[in-house]
Amino acid sequence: MSIIRGFDADRLLDLCLSLVIAFLLATLIGAERQWRQRNAGLRTNVLVAVGAAAFVTLGMRINGQSGATQIAAYVVSGIGFLGAGVIMKDGAQISGLNTAATLWCSAAVGALCGVGLAAEAGVLTLAVLAGNTALRPLVNAINRAPLDELTSEATYEVHVATSPEGVGEVRDLVAEALERASYPVRQIEVFERSPEVSEIVATLVSTAVDPVELDAVAGALEQSPLVSYASWSSSSTE
Predict the structure, then answer these.
(1) Is the model's pLDDT at 238 over the cut of 50?
(2) Which among 165, 223, 231 has a CA at the least distance from the CA of 201?
(3) For 34-81, how does the pLDDT look when each residue is reduced to its tens digit (9 = 90+)?
(4) Percent of the chain clearing pLDDT 90 (strictly above)
(5) Is the pLDDT of residue 106 over 80?
(6) Burial class of residue 205 in the structure, from the number of CB atoms within 10 Å of its CB (0-12 exposed, 13-18 middle, 19+ buried)
(7) Is the per-residue pLDDT at 97 higher than 70?
(8) How would you label 176-195 residue by residue, b for 16+ Cβ within 10 Å and e otherwise?
(9) With CB atoms 3.0 to 4.6 Å apart as the test, which of 36, 53, 85, 86 could cross-link to 110 if both were Cys?
(10) Taking residues 90-99, what's their average pLDDT?
């Protein structure tokens, strides 16, 4: 039988060591994700790393270094589909990108173990843990910093309230006011806030604006008897 003829104790031991190392290193990565209650936690990261190690080892057994390279390429592309499953989009908010990237790195850890590069896999594991933990205070500090509207890439919106009957005319007023201020509009949406109030939201194309100019635009719009209030807001984009 081919299974009996293909049995090699040394190769089996090598595979076991690769899988054990991949298992242990991915456990470190997955434990951090599990502790933070991410979508892809301990078991997912371990399975990704162990599977990648097994596939790369298989490629090496079949066709040597060339086979390992081919399988590793498929692992890199294939893990993208798994990572896409943990990325969630809720309106303008996107979550799960970091978890997907961590899964990708777990696959890399497994691939390195599969070709016998255990030390390199350990270094990568430390880098992943550092990225997910040591950089967190820096990320929080940046997120808490005041937004500089003049230099930051952000989404800017102009909000104008009017009556449902005045939507058409006020919509034109908003577009004209922003055009005069040299701020092109990406889209204008209308939201019914109540039977008596409609809100017109104009999203700007520009990624950097002068807050004083937008204040002037809002003030000019409020001069119209059809406008209840006018304001603008900004939110950072990633």
Answers:
(1) no
(2) 231
(3) 887 776 778 888 888 898 888 888 888 778 778 788 888 888 777 877
(4) 20
(5) yes
(6) exposed
(7) yes
(8) ebbeebebeeeebeeeeeee
(9) 53
(10) 66
Which amino acid makes up residue 216?
A
Residues 131-147 as b/e (b if ≥16 CB within 10 A, e otherwise) read ebeeeeeeeeeeeeeee
The domain defined by 154-236 carries CATH number 3.40.50.11750:
no
**Can you give the pLDDT at residue 236?**
65
- Comparing C-alpha atoms, which of 41, 69, 39 is closest to residue 56? 69
* Residue ranges per structural domain of the chain: 2-144, 154-236
Q: State the pLDDT confidence band at 198, using cuts at 50, 70 and 90.
A: very high
